[in-house]
Amino acid sequence: MWSHTFNKRVALGILTFACAASSLAYVPDDRWSTTTSGSTGNYGDPATLAWSLVPDGTRIPGEENSNLINYLDDLFNVSANSTDLTNRPWFSLVEESFTRWSDLSGLTFVYEPNDTGSSLETSSGVLGTRGDIRIGGAYLDGTNGTLAYAYLPDIGDLVVDTGETTFYSNSSNNYLQLRNVLMHEIGHALGLLHVESSSESLLMEPTINLSIDGPQLDEIRGIQGLYGDAYEKSNNGLGNGSYLRATDLGQLVSGGDLAIGTDATGGQTVLATESDFVSISESTDYDYYSFTIDAASLVDLTLTPLGGVFSQAVEGGAESAFDANSRNDLQLALYDTDGTTLLKLANETGLGGVEQLSNLELSSAGTYYARVSGSTSSMQLYELQLSAAALVLAETGDFNGDGLVDLADYTVWRNSLGDAGANLAADGNYDNLVNAADYAIWKNQFGSAASTGVVVGTTNVPESSSLVLLGIAALAITHTRLRRTTNRLD
Ligand SMILES: [Zn+2]
Questions:
Q1: Are residues 206 and 263 in the same domain?
Q2: What's the CA-to-centroid distance between 35 and ligand 1, angstroms?
Q3: What are the pLDDT digits (tens) for 255-309?
């Protein structure tokens, strides 16, 4: 056990440390299998982890006993007289370092205020007693060299070099130097190993990079591959894998659009303010999204695999181009308002290809469901975009879509008479041609207004044959929409 755990220790240093690992851009080692909250399931499943700060004097195997609390108090000029660490000015920096990882993934972190001071590395977490991830510190090698090190899951403990006073006392960018070290080591504690890239600046590089703040796109791929995206912990950890628990994207208005996963479109660099990243992590991972339209709409959905192409290698390996856009062949499905009736599936392209559902006619208001899934068990970031335009229910004769069948609709027909193509406003019989047959539909609908008694005065008559319509100008067509039983989807 000792040699095993020692091998799973990884360090962040000014110097480069060599270690062997498998070949994925983000180089995962393993994920937590059991935490203080129990079994964590499989790759892509969310997990809850507790973290604690070990009291000074706690044994750290191979080092002096921990002096981290006193070290940080000195660094921030705190005269400590309380065991409540949450009031320390440095506490929020530690907490933020965990929060950043949880904002980007299915992880939930809980601060465990208790820590019994049992030896680091060999004492697993116990709720109310000590955290899963325990943080201590000792003088490792003074200025430069190693900044900190961490153990991989299921140990996950962190040791900070309390000999790095100049480095950690730098307050620039809200103590970026301290936070990036903590976020890097937490990355190890969660199961990520080192990765190297000559083209990108990454948090999990063996040597600290201070041009970035926290996890970058490759590390977000890594953490979501292990624990899923942030929506996997929604619905009390049940995630969004069913239409009943769909992530609500909100109202899709005519002329408007909605999107999720958009922050992954900005290249490899991720700002600390960005957290809109979603992914498929497994072939069994289904991401459901709901959106609501308040009127019949013509809807477009676009699913774009993301991640970018960049140079990378495992630590000490030879770099090569890695195509993170092409990890998993995604599918896009649209379901009706019942959540289960498939309206249309898009699975036309292969790895790296965009899937689209274009010009879908959704004929009634309501909440619809889009489902994203993948064909293999590979992690794939993506963006889902939705847009809507007003859908003219041409078969009702309401060619201008204003909810009324009136002479204005005749004008639309007259002005587009002879036009050919898809989605023509006055193509009442959907034969992609505006002709006399469509006029007949309008006239018929208009005529039916007479029997309903819905009468509005008018002064125009389209043609002599419809003089009978004189005096009848408008009919609310709400009821005619119910006549439509099939969805035209192309
Ligand atoms: Zn490291």
A1: no
A2: 22
A3: 999 999 999 999 999 999 999 999 999 889 999 999 999 988 999 999 999 999 9
